[in-house]
Design brief:
Blueprint (H helix, E strand, L loop, with lengths): L9 H9 L2 E5 L6 H16 L3 E6 L17 E2 L10 E5 L11 H6 L2 E6 L10 E4 L6 H11 L6 H15 L9 H12 L4 H9 L4 H12 L2 E3 L4 E6 L1 H7 L21 E8 L2 E8 L5 H6 L4 E2 L3 E7 L3 H17 L3
Parallel strand pairs: 1-2, 1-4, 2-3, 4-5, 5-6, 8-9
Antiparallel strand pairs: 7-8, 9-10, 10-12, 11-12
């Protein structure tokens, strides 16, 4: 298959070639796209002879612990010495999306921002933000091609994980001909689709299934069944010996109900309220999330309220969603 170079990615490629010591991070509470791209880029840069410090504020869910190279990531462990010339942020829509990196920004020569969220801010010295891309993984594959580098099988597995988790195995509307082309490139490079498909889509831990059951028991339909809402508080997690990492995929379940237009999952965490939103398409949930300081895509978005009261957050969110529903009439 003919590999395609993306001219718009050349400034990113040039910045990567100039850098010598890299700090790489994806967003907090990493999903398959964020953590997969972090691992792939860390591996690629090491092959180029660069020093790399891959970082993640949080551990990924259990379903992503199969990813090759995961043990190389520094989880919630900032570097002892700040001497990085290049910062690489993947799927971080703003400077704080991955954590508190204020000191790193003060000393780095280059800041590279790669994202596919339309709400992303151009905070880097080199930015590539493409809301038409299905995933950051799609962009990273194009970056490999632009740089003339073929992913190793492990790198391809990590990137493919991001691609299929963000497109739900090419079922979501963000799937495009380019998404399928990129998938083919990664398969040709040796992505282990049998392992990742089994673990990601045909495996659930006991804790995840128990929490899913509790979440569905707490499911409420409001606004004439147009909004599905699930709220999980500390007692829910404690009762089942689970944590917020076990909520992966829960918010997508209620959108299967024919009448539902938007699904909402609110999670009470020790220092914040985390909210995930999913839409069938009529409501742009990224616009709603932006009202609360968050962002995302038209069909999948989220936000966090630090030290928030969950019932107050719910009340304000439902009011915002009702306003959006009213516009449809």
């Amino acid at each position: 298959m003919k590999k395609i170079s993306n001219p718009a990615l050349k400034p990113i490629a040039q910045a990567l070639k100039k850098g010598k010591k890299f700090f790489i991070a994806g967003h907090q509470n990493p999903d398959g796209d964020s953590i997969g791209c972090t691992l792939a880029m860390a591996s690629m840069l090491k092959r180029m002879g660069r020093e790399v410090y891959p970082y993640s504020k949080d551990l990924p869910g259990d379903d992503l612990k199969f990813l090759p190279g995961l043990s190389d990531i520094h989880f919630d462990e900032m570097p002892a010495k700040n001497d990085f010339d290049t910062l690489l942020f993947l799927e971080c829509s703003d400077k704080k999306r991955g954590g508190d990196f204020e000191e790193l920004f003060k000393t780095a020569k280059y800041v590279i921002n790669i994202d596919h969220h339309k709400t992303s801010e151009n905070y880097g010295t080199a930015n590539y933000v493409n809301p038409q891309a299905s995933s950051t993984a799609e962009i990273i594959t194009q970056l490999f091609e632009t740089m003339g580098i073929v992913p190793t099988p492990d790198e391809a597995t990590c990137i493919y994980t991001g691609l299929v988790t963000d497109t739900a195995r090419f079922l979501h509307s963000n799937t495009s001909p380019e998404s399928l082309r990129v998938g083919s490139v990664l398969l040709s490079a040796g992505a282990d689709i049998q392992t990742l498909n089994t673990i990601l889509f045909n495996t659930k831990s006991y804790k995840e299934l128990k929490l899913l059951g509790r979440a569905l028991e707490k499911l409420n339909l409001i606004c004439g069944g147009k909004i599905a809402e699930i709220t999980l508080v500390g007692e829910d997690f404690k009762a089942l010996n689970t944590d917020p990492a076990h909520t992966q995929g829960i918010v997508s379940q209620p959108v299967m109900i024919p009448e539902v237009e938007v699904s909402v999952l609110l999670r009470q965490e020790p220092d914040k309220v985390s909210v995930n939103l999913r839409s069938k398409g009529k409501i742009d949930v990224s616009a709603v999330a932006q009202q609360f300081g968050g962002g995302g895509h038209a069909r999948a978005a989220g936000f966090k309220i630090m030290n928030g009261e969950i019932e107050t957050v719910k009340e304000n969110l439902v009011a915002a969603l009702k306003a959006e529903l009213a516009k449809l009439k």
